[in-house]
Amino acid sequence: MPKHSRRLLRGTVLICALALGATACGGSDDGGSSGKAVSEADVQAALKKGGTITVWAWEPTLKQVAADFEKEYPGVEVDLVNAGTNEKQYTALQNAISAKKGVPDVAQVEYYAMGQFALTEQLTDLKGFGAEKLSAQYSPGPWNGVKAGGDGVYGLPMDSGPMALFYNKKVFDKYKIEVPTTWDEYVDAARALHKADPKAYITNDTGDAGFTTSMLWQAGSRPYKVDGTKVSIDFSDQGAKTYTDTWQKLLDEKLLAPVTSWSDEWYKGLGDGSIATLATGAWMPANLASGVKEAAGDWRVAPLPQWTAGGKAGAENGGSALTLPELGGNKELAYAFVEYANAGKGVQTRVEGGAFPATTAQLTSQEFQDTKFPYFGGQQANKIFAESAANVADDWSYLPYQVYANSIFNDTVGKAYVSGTGLADGLKAWQDASVTYGSEQGFTVEK
């Protein structure tokens, strides 16, 4: 699952694209098909002919999908390779693209990283396969993610991370704390909890780029605007102010556990109740069930608190797509696998394996919504996740160099967690550093 302290070789993608021309890294004479119409008959012919495709992905449920695909199409072999999680795979993928050697036919790419590969024409535009006709199958956040701020379709959504509030009911009941429905109520709950037990915190937060952008998304902030190589970055809008004014109270009053997510201390805090909530993506249940077994039955799920009473705004946190790198081969066969995995029979297989879907058919199905989670005391949590997914605004954009921007988050915004720097000032520093970097890479950047 997402761990938002990501790194990538600095500048490699964009220097290549903007200094040498957009197609210098992404074109080839033997594999590219961006913009070329491919008929369903072409895809079926490729399946009949068979062959081998290489798929780079870390998502575990794809193993069964690949086996089922091979069984349905006996002439096809799927070589599923785990080249590393998120940033490790992106580095390996960029190195293969630069060398024009060993590029996979299919690659898993998270939504926040999609733009850096799409802008430089290193991903095949799947509109050539008619992929835009599948748009109605997906919830708005993931479909927006594969558009990468442009008109193309650079992958098919594989999963999503609509946010919800996971909370420790046992702790809340012990201290008679109501489940917060607004972020102001959340701050009040944080105060009440910490006063009742100085060792307990409403949540942990040591500064996380993915969490921060998700919170800004929900608050209505739209700091990034992207039009090709024209970029604007502005963290001073009302949505950003709404977020920083509220979250600053938690920082100033030391109401956040200074514990890094995914650490041993974090798992311990989730288990013993000293970390009482998590505002995160719908992929979290499996992590709690496997990593915090001792607290089974203690936790529940609630809708994400709102910035305005009575609101229903959602946001995404995490999620990825399957893409076709432009230098990969076997385009028709590769697309057939991607469509099978993310729009066909493979979707249900992945859901049954524990993945959280991006497809509305699964999200709205009675079977999915009625699923009871033993870990959450038998709660039908998917109903909350599905509603959150439906309420995600689809106009959010990431930078085409978001991977780099996230890598400098701790050097800018992160100072608000370890010094007297205000959160708003930290965002301004992040903005300035991102503007400088973008300008150095050849973007026209406004702020």
From TrEMBL:
It comes from the Bacteria. One of its GO terms (biological process) is transmembrane transport. Keywords: Signal, Transport. The keyword Ribonucleoprotein does not apply. Gene3D superfamilies: Periplasmic binding protein-like II (3.40.190.10). PROSITE patterns: PROKAR_LIPOPROTEIN, SBP_BACTERIAL_1. Pfam families: SBP_bac_1 (PF01547). Residues 1-24 form the signal peptide. Belongs to the bacterial solute-binding protein 1 family. This is Sugar ABC transporter substrate-binding protein. The lineage of its organism: Bacteria, Bacillati, Actinomycetota, Actinomycetes, Kitasatosporales.
